[in-house]
């Protein structure tokens, strides 16, 4: 793939133990208060996630928030009051949303553009990768390697904030990210579009070096805690592992992603 062509496309818009850090929320990325959150969503801001108080009773304003969030496909999580209070001690009224640092793109549009250019799709699907630094490092490697897009779930993924942008060294300004409601349905769509889905897991019999990655491919990388979920493994076309020779039987997920992605590049070049 020519580098200049890849750049044009990109401008379209479990291998380790869990290593959690909880970044301190940046007030510039956070909006709180029911009416303020409603107006932020209506204004067309890209919302990374919306936290709503679990025990909060029904009210016309809260019902409006739920309706607006649903209409704009905003991921909603019901959480206890204590979690909201840990984020801010100000009067949040039971609702806090985080504004995404990027705009998500349509997976359909990405695939259409890649196929129209006569290129071979390479996508990375990240299953519940929650560490912001891992996510940023993966994005940096993916952009350097010419991956056409990252695919993440609408819930249970790292927040794409200033820390993620910084860790990616700005790669997230160029690399499209697709946010999907149901990853199982997404895998089926990818397969129907002619891509093979390869799940990278230590439970595989084949090495990543034994799998043909030259054709249209989507790679699944699993969470820091427990790898790829079983329902996604069952739907994958191929399972592959990175050979381990030393005493430690796992790699950090961002490092593992680099190994796998560059094996794809090696085979294609």
From TrEMBL:
Residues 1-23 are annotated as: Disordered. It holds the Pfam family SpoU_sub_bind. InterPro entries: Alpha/beta_knot_MTases, Ribosomal_eL30-like_sf, rRNA_MeTrfase_TrmH, SpoU_MeTrfase, SpoU_subst-bd, tRNA_m1G_MTases_N. The keyword Transferase applies. Keywords: Methyltransferase, Transferase. Residues 1-16 have a biased composition (Basic and acidic residues). The keyword Transferase applies. Residues 30-105 form the RNA 2-O ribose methyltransferase substrate binding domain. It comes from the Bacteria. This is 23S rRNA (Guanosine(2251)-2'-O)-methyltransferase RlmB. It comes from Rhodocytophaga aerolata. The gene is rlmB.
């Amino acid at each position: 793939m020519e580098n200049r062509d890849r750049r044009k496309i990109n401008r379209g818009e479990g291998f380790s133990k869990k290593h959690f850090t909880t970044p301190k929320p940046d007030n510039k990325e956070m909006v709180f208060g029911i009416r303020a959150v409603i107006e932020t969503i209506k204004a067309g801001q890209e919302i990374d996630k919306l936290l709503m108080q679990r025990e909060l009773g029904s009210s016309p304003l809260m019902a409006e928030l739920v309706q607006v969030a649903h209409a704009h496909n905003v991921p909603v999580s019901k959480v206890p009051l204590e979690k909201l209070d840990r984020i801010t001690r100000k009067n949040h009224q039971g609702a806090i949303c985080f504004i995404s640092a990027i705009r998500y793109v349509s997976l359909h549009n990405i695939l259409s553009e890649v196929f129209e250019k006569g290129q071979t799709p390479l996508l990375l699907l990240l299953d519940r990768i929650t560490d912001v630094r891992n996510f940023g490092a993966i994005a940096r490697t993916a952009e350097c390697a010419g991956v056409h897009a990252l695919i993440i779930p609408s819930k249970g993924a790292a927040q794409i904030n200033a820390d993620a942008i910084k860790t990616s060294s700005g790669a997230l300004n160029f690399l499209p990210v697709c946010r999907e409601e149901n990853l199982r349905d997404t895998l089926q769509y990818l397969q129907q579009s002619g891509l093979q889905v390869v799940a990278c897991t230590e439970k595989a019999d084949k090495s990543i070096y034994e799998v043909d990655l030259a054709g249209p491919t989507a790679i699944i990388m699993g969470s820091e805690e427990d790898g790829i979920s079983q329902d996604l493994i069952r739907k994958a076309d191929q399972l592959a592992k990175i050979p381990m020779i030393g005493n430690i039987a796992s790699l950090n997920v961002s490092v593992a992603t680099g190994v796998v992605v560059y094996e794809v590049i090696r085979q294609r070049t």
